[in-house]
Amino acid sequence: MASVAVILMLVNRRLYKQGIRCNALHVCVLAGLLSLLVAFAAGSCRKLITSVYVIALVAAVISFLLLQILFVVMLTPKPPLPPWLPPWVSRLFEPLSPPEGKPRVHTGRHTEQYMKRKYLMLLGILAASVTYQAGFSPPGGMWDNGNPILHDMDLPRYHAFFHCNATSFVASVVVIVVLLQRTVKRHSAPLWAMQTAVVLDLLGLLGAYAAGSCRN
Fold first, then answer.
1. pLDDT < 50 regions, the chain
2. How far apart are CA 12 and CA 18, in angstroms?
3. Which of 7, 42, 99, 130 is the most exposed place for a label (fewest CB within 10 A)?
4. pLDDT of residue 98
């Protein structure tokens, strides 16, 4: 329902401006991603160990989002920042758009970073879709009682598939959430962090494929 609300806001000219002004669009996107995490944790876990692993990953993502919201609420660009804060903390919350009255300068570096963010978002969405579906339909299928066949036939391979797939899914959601934030810094550090998350995402995808598709 959050996804449908986002689509309706974006296709309606009267709704999307109001939705952006009152942050309704951001709230719907955040609610959709958090619901996706909870649904993945509830639907893909069969045992206590795997449940604890996925719940820990989801809790880490939610804690990251809460810290971001807390810093955004506490730190505003107008008053001076507290002197005890490290410089990198204040730089993380610099606005993407230049201050009012200053023209935008479209340099080659800016265009290159914009294209990189687009490709990272594309990879994140693709991996999230694949890993989410694989979490509910593990390789080998399911028994009539709902347990994965691979779990009973080859337990180590199932654990390798599950942990790689879950790690890749959570890394995808982290990349999407970070790229959707307005406060992403334009310099190289956050971009490298997102690229590292995408590399972890793709490595987890490869590991899940190797564990789920090999029979011998």
1. 95-99, 183-189
2. 10
3. 99
4. 47
The one-letter amino acid code at 116 reads K
Predicted confidence at residue 49, as pLDDT, reads: 74
Confirm if 138 and 150 have CB atoms less than 8 A apart: yes
Task: Encode the chain in three state secondary structure.
Answer: CHHHHHHHHHHCHHHHHHHHHCCHHHHHHHHHHHHHHHHHHHHHCCCHHHHHHHHHHHHHHHHHHHHHHHHHHHCCCCCCCCCCCCHHHHHHCCCCCCCCCCCCCCCHHHHHHHHHHHHHHHHHHHHHHHHHHHHHCCCCCECCCCCEHHHHHCHHHHHHHHHHHHHHHHHHHHHHHHHHCCCCCCCHHHHHHHHHHHHHHHHHHHHHHHHHHCCC
pLDDT of 17 reads 73
| Residue 80, pLDDT score | 58
Q: Please report the pLDDT score of residue 73 as a whole number.
A: 64
Q: Which amino acid is at 12?
A: N
The amino acid occupying position 193 is: A
Q: What global pTM score does this model have?
A: 0.67
Q: Are 178 and 170 in contact (CB under 8 A)?
A: no
Among candidate residues 15, 5, 8, the one with its CA nearest the CA of residue 35: 5
What pLDDT is stored for residue 184 in this prediction? Answer: 45
Chain-centroid distance of CA 185 in Å reads: 17
